[in-house]
Design goal:
Blueprint: H1 4-25, H2 33-50, H3 53-56, H4 62-87, H5 91-145
Helix pairs in contact: 1-2, 1-5, 2-4, 4-5
Length: 146
Amino acid sequence: LCSLKGRLLLAESGLSFITFICYVASSASAFLTAPLLEFLLALFFLFADAMQLNDKWQGLCWPMMDFLRCVTAALIYFAISITAVAKYSDGASKAAGVFGFFATIVFAIDFYLIFNDVAKFLKQGDSADETTAHKTEEENSDSDSD
């Protein structure tokens, strides 16, 4: 919980739980499944991050799974929040929509940070490949000139 990722996952799970409770109490109860699933997924990723399962299970692509989770959650929260605020008139639906918009922002920040980390990692891999390829070309050109 001390890291930025831990705090983001905690905020995601907290906002998802509050949104779920608001949808349970509202007339827009058809939307309660999405916050419940996102709450459970955020708790799983918080647990995986705390237990460092990404280091233990190397076969899974953790950054891509986390990125896809955040992108889909942001899109789904945005869509159901707009619908809840525009279509339903009770206070619980409006509150669920507002908390859904906050959750959309938190998920968007998370996938932006994940995207930046993955892009930096890929740039480092590309520069290492270019350096290796450049060294190989120099070695081949030196051996041909003899």
